[in-house]
Amino acid sequence: MDQLRSTYPDRVPILLANGVPFLWESRDVERVRTEHNLCGLLTGTLPLIPQQNVFLGMPLRLLPEEVVLLLRRRAAVLIDDAHAYGAPTEEERSEYLAHEAQEILDQKERQRRQQEEHRQRMEAAITQESGDARALERRRARQAAKQAKGQAPDETPEENEQDVLAKMPYVHHTHSTSAHLPAYHPATAEMNTGTTNAYLTLQEAQVAGVWTYPSTLQERARCAAFEALHSKGFFLSTGLRFGGDFVVYPGDPLRYHSHYTATVLATPQQPMAAFHVVASGRLGTAVKKSHLLCQANTIVLDDAEALERRLAGYDDATESTPALPWGNAEYWSLAWAGFGT
């Protein structure tokens, strides 16, 4: 990853897990937020927080539209993480399991030594307080009898000690990096240069089959509306909880409440029932926002033609020219006049 960052210092690495895009490092989250006005959605847990329904942690999951925007800005590199590394061999698996077992044994040995040191300190304290060595002998006799009671008749002291170690609890440590694992190596030699399983454009990702969004007329319309609103300085996030495709903020969501919920229509000719218009207006009022109907007049309507343009690189920017827009977007703001907003 460090070599990949040095190869593409101006791009944020986006890791794909089963087709879902994630940012795993805080510096990348900060960068896309401060430089590109993209928020994403935190999906990880915070171990020290008793409830996991208010504040969440890394990784940050990006919206598909956010990934497309970053790629079209030449600001991201898409990494197919599942295929970036080879499967471990049987020898490497055995080495890893043996290393794990040795770590657990070492941890239990440390606990046993700490218990023994604690016992010796307690005995010294008892002798010092009572001044009677016989009290210490009686304590040792009680402990020996208790230990002998728990030992099987045909069990040797060495076997009993192994039994005690086996029953001792241990803590499983998750390392912050995988570099120490014997099977952690690139799947191919080309990965050493940061080229294999790393894609810089929508065209490359489409050819490899790792990222096909947007592939339908509705998805292209969503991208058109997203990029149009984003270009006006708005921050956007998923609008599912407010009944729309996006929720729109006038600035950083850490400073502002959202002002709009947005629903995207695939084409200007897409029919919309009257009760849907009324419902959208009432929904916006219920959640204390204006509801936007976004009409995207996309350049390409046919999916096959859109795929040809993608494979030809028309959806991507070059070093000298920005990416062509998906299409023009227009908006209508709805409000339920019976209640006011």
From TrEMBL:
<dbReference type="Pfam" id="PF01974">
    <property type="entry name" value="tRNA_int_endo"/>
</dbReference>
<comment type="function">
    <text>Constitutes one of the two catalytic subunit of the tRNA-splicing endonuclease complex, a complex responsible for identification and cleavage of the splice sites in pre-tRNA. It cleaves pre-tRNA at the 5'- and 3'-splice sites to release the intron. The products are an intron and two tRNA half-molecules bearing 2',3'-cyclic phosphate and 5'-OH termini. There are no conserved sequences at the splice sites, but the intron is invariably located at the same site in the gene, placing the splice sites an invariant distance from the constant structural features of the tRNA body.</text>
</comment>
<feature type="active site">
    <location>
        <position position="249"/>
    </location>
</feature>
<dbReference type="GO" id="GO:0003676">
    <property type="term" value="F:nucleic acid binding"/>
</dbReference>
<dbReference type="Pfam" id="PF26577">
    <property type="entry name" value="TSEN34_N"/>
</dbReference>
<feature type="region of interest" description="Disordered">
    <location>
        <begin position="108"/>
        <end position="161"/>
    </location>
</feature>
<dbReference type="InterPro" id="IPR011856">
    <property type="entry name" value="tRNA_endonuc-like_dom_sf"/>
</dbReference>
<dbReference type="InterPro" id="IPR059049">
    <property type="entry name" value="TSEN34_N"/>
</dbReference>
<keyword id="KW-0819">tRNA processing</keyword>
<feature type="domain" description="tRNA intron endonuclease catalytic">
    <location>
        <begin position="222"/>
        <end position="294"/>
    </location>
</feature>
<comment type="similarity">
    <text>Belongs to the tRNA-intron endonuclease family.</text>
</comment>
<dbReference type="GO" id="GO:0000214">
    <property type="term" value="C:tRNA-intron endonuclease complex"/>
</dbReference>
<keyword id="KW-0456">Lyase</keyword>
<dbReference type="GO" id="GO:0000213">
    <property type="term" value="F:tRNA-intron lyase activity"/>
</dbReference>
<dbReference type="InterPro" id="IPR006677">
    <property type="entry name" value="tRNA_intron_Endonuc_cat-like"/>
</dbReference>
<dbReference type="InterPro" id="IPR016690">
    <property type="entry name" value="TSEN34"/>
</dbReference>
<feature type="compositionally biased region" description="Basic and acidic residues">
    <location>
        <begin position="108"/>
        <end position="122"/>
    </location>
</feature>
<dbReference type="InterPro" id="IPR036167">
    <property type="entry name" value="tRNA_intron_Endo_cat-like_sf"/>
</dbReference>
<dbReference type="GO" id="GO:0000379">
    <property type="term" value="P:tRNA-type intron splice site recognition and cleavage"/>
</dbReference>
<protein>
    <recommendedName>
        <fullName>tRNA-splicing endonuclease subunit Sen34</fullName>
        <ecNumber>4.6.1.16</ecNumber>
    </recommendedName>
</protein>
<feature type="domain" description="TSEN34 N-terminal">
    <location>
        <begin position="12"/>
        <end position="81"/>
    </location>
</feature>
<feature type="active site">
    <location>
        <position position="289"/>
    </location>
</feature>
<feature type="active site">
    <location>
        <position position="257"/>
    </location>
</feature>
